[in-house]
Specification:
Strand content: under 5%
Largest sheet: none
Number of strands: 0
Radius of gyration: 13 Å
Structural class: mainly alpha
Distance between the termini: 22 Å
Order of helices and strands: HHHH
Low-confidence stretches: 83-87
Number of helices: 4
Number of domains: 1
Mean pLDDT: 76
């Protein structure tokens, strides 16, 4: 799924060749990467802060008709919890 490296969350949602589970996987990976970048910038690493986290989470919310925002993972990225919440049926 490396072809989605520069895709927007909206483009992932519109992709007809992916199942909902594959879309959720791509979006979760995008969310984790955006969180990694935000943490790096917060900790003083050079780079620009990204505004992608919100659109990615909104796309996941639209795809899954809700996200578990009350419970988060043990790291700043919340990746493992986000993935479980997004793929739970």
């Amino acid at each position: 799924m490396s072809t989605f490296a520069t895709a927007t969350p909206e483009e992932v949602l519109r992709e007809r060749h992916l199942t909902d589970e594959e879309k959720a996987d791509v979006l979760c990976r995008m969310a984790y990467d955006a969180a990694e970048l935000a943490v790096a910038v917060e900790e003083g690493m050079p780079g620009e802060d990204s505004d992608l986290q919100r659109p990615i989470l909104l796309a996941l919310d639209q795809l899954r008709r809700g996200l578990d925002v009350e419970h988060t993972g043990p790291t700043k990225q919340h990746g493992a919890r986000l993935l479980r919440a997004a793929t739970a049926s």
